[in-house]
Amino acid sequence: MVNMPKTGGTFCRKCGKLQPHKVARYKKGKDYPYAQGKWHYDRKHSGYGGQTKPIFWEKAKTTKIVLRLQIKEFWLLRDVNTLNWEDLRRERAK
């Protein structure tokens, strides 16, 4: 988790000036159970037989955290990609 203030002043393109924004972490929505890929995967796995597709075992890279900035005046949402957690920590230490 990233230590970020709940609110922060950021430039708003609509207003053309610095405005207070509410900062929240972007979260993935709920998966639709009838999506084509999920449906095919479940169909392939039903019945007799084991795992049919390869399971990814390699270590994943550090994910970049996406922050949602919401302006307080008129509820305009904007997504901002932040740096990796290590890079963010290094920047704050400066």
Task: State which percent range the strand residues make up.
Answer: 25-35%
Number of strands: 4
| Lateral arrangement of strands in the main beta sheet | 1-2-3-4
Low-confidence stretches: none
User: Radius of gyration in whole Å, from Cα?
Assistant: 20 Å
Q: What count of helical segments does DSSP give?
A: 2
Helix content: 10-25%
- Order of SSEs, N→C? EEHEEH
Biggest sheet architecture: 4 strands, antiparallel
Whole-Å distance between the termini?
20 Å
| Rounded mean pLDDT score | 80
Q: Which structural category do the helix and sheet elements fall into? A: alpha+beta
Instruction: Give the overall silhouette.
Output: elongated
Q: Which features characterize this protein?
A:
94 residues, 4 strands, 2 helices, 20% helix, four-stranded antiparallel β-sheet, alpha+beta, single chain, ribonucleoprotein
Describe the structure.
The chain has 94 residues and is an alpha+beta fold. The protein has a domain at 8-27 and 63-94. It is 20% helix and 28% strand. The protein has two helices and four strands. It has helices at 36-45, 85-93, and strands at residues 7-12, 17-25, 66-71, 77-81. The protein has a four-stranded antiparallel sheet with strand order 1-2-3-4, with no helix packed on it. The two termini are 20 Å apart.
Per-chain topology:
Elements: E1 7-12, E2 17-25, H1 36-45, E3 66-71, E4 77-81, H2 85-93
